[in-house]
Amino acid sequence: MDLKECGYSLANRKQMRKKSIHPCQSADKDVIEETHTENLMTNLSNAYASDLLPSKEGKDLTKCFLLRVVNILLHYIEKTFDVKSKILDFHHPHQLLEGLDGFDLELSDHPESLEQLLVDCTDTLKYGVKTGHPRYFNQLSSGLDVIGLAGEWLTATANTNMFTYEIAPVFTVMEAVLLKKMCEIIGWREAEADGIFSPGGSISNLYGILVARYKQYPEIKAKGMTVLPRIVLFVSEQGHYSIKKAAATLGIGTDNVIEVKCDERGKMIPAELEKNILQAKRKGRTPFCVVATAGSTVFGAFDPLHDIADICEIHKLWMHVDAAWGGGLLLSRNHSYKLGGIERADSVTWNPHKLMGVPLQCSAILTREKGLLGACNQMQAEYLFQPDKVYNINFDTGDKTLQCGRHVDVFKLWLMWKAKGTYGFEVQIDRYMELAKYFHKVLKKKDNFKLVFDAEPEFTNVCFWYFPPRLKHIPKSFERDQELQKIAPKIKAQMIVEGTVMLSYQPCGDKVNFFRMVFSNPATRQTDVDYLIDEIQRLGKDL
Ligand SMILES: Cc1ncc(COP(=O)(O)O)c(C=O)c1O
């Protein structure tokens, strides 16, 4: 490419090189800003990816292109935090596939210009969902932490792989530091605990069950399921579906996941667990693991961990705690007692990408016993995990995992922890709890809303129905519930079309569709909560 074509001249480039001095070394901030402005205004219609670094003349063009990308991202970030901006500009999948206003998802044989790529970047964000918007309440993971984002940018720039210290020296040691910290917070101070970051809570749960089975039956690794009796595991009926998925994946089978009844708040009933264990034994099955949930997905319920730990001890069962959602609460001195007994678990899933607001994805599987993950998973591939390396190979942690290549998920968490300190997370989490209390209190006073649980929320989940005027005074009946079932999806559909708020809904057991509010978005304020209530009434009053 001729650099002149895209607004460059040699003199211009030399000048830019001269100007691009580190701000700390130069008092001339204006010169740098001017350079940025020039870069942002450069038209890249005749420039292509092949002109960027490592192309010989690519340095200035690379800077120009990346600054423009960053400018697009900054614009998006500002919009994300602006309550007046829409959360999404909804289109159906077929519309995206057909192409929208020149945004064409089809791939071609020929390269597109850098200018076109910038348009594509803008459009990709335009038709996406602003998950950091103060009124985005749709998922357990929400919010946009600027430090976490910076961590993710750095991680992508470093573009390395977590399997060995050799190629990720800083990140593997950082991972060890974080795992140690998290194990200590769980309460495994004396024990030589262990763990690894994995691609999400579902995979962490899979690791928990995998290690539980290996501990009981180490021969499984070589011989497979044929040498095992019919093993069963237990989880509450409010447990996450990833437990059944893990059982299917591991060859245990979903029929061998026994769902334990919950009380009216969605907590596992210990007596039911014991009953189920005895029943399974009588039927000739072999219990090996209990999965307790600390912060259930829909109701935000905490299973009674001490009672479950007692039962596990009596029956010699592995206790896994799925604290994917609730784990962050351990950082709050006011609320951590709700996970009392977690220190008695054999393994724990904890997702910093949920309550702690770390950008997706960031999840850890932690085990009380050191070495099990390694023993269970390692294959000692000689091309990667050579025993005679120059450094301490205990930091080559890759063989503990099911993966070979592994994304660096730790840096953004480490950087956020540095930025906030443990107390900063605590403040953030306590604020969510206050917001949940406030929301619950306001809804309780409104006669067109009904809470699924009248009692004050234990976590940041608040579940509720909205009753439009035509249903408000009709007593509960099958017919009334059939109508109520349709209300939440209709309101949600309208929310998406208008892009004003996003909130999830679901039926559960005998409860027809209800909304689930959760607080995990640091941008949310009380005014956004008030707005949500008004918006539901506005969208639902004529239904
Ligand atoms: C309790 C619980 N466990 C596990 C998971 C799965 O986590 P992930 O989405 O990171 O796979 C979720 C997700 O919402 C959850 O709520």
Strand order of the largest sheet: 2-8-7-6-5-3-4
Question: Could you give the distance between the termini?
Answer: 60 Å
SSE class: alpha/beta
Mean pLDDT: 94
Main sheet attributes: strand count, strand direction, barrel closure = 7 strands, mixed
Q: Which of globular, elongated, flat, extended, rod-shaped describes the shape?
A: globular
Please count the helical segments: 17
Poorly predicted regions: 1-24
The gyration radius over C-alpha positions equals 26 Å
Topology:
Layout: H1 10-19, H2 29-41, H3 59-80, H4 93-98, H5 114-126, E1 136-137, H6 146-158, H7 169-186, E2 194-198, H8 201-216, H9 220-223, E3 231-236, H10 242-249, E4 257-260, H11 270-282, E5 286-293, H12 305-315, E6 318-323, E7 347-350, E8 363-367, H13 372-377, H14 410-445, E9 449-451, E10 462-466, H15 469-472, H16 478-498, E11 502-508, E12 511-517, H17 526-540
Parallel strand pairs: 1-11, 3-4, 3-5, 5-6, 6-7
Antiparallel strand pairs: 2-8, 7-8, 9-10, 10-12, 11-12
The structure holds pyridoxal-5'-phosphate.
Pfam family, one: Pyridoxal_deC
Organism: Rangifer tarandus platyrhynchus (Svalbard reindeer)
Family: Belongs to the group II decarboxylase family.
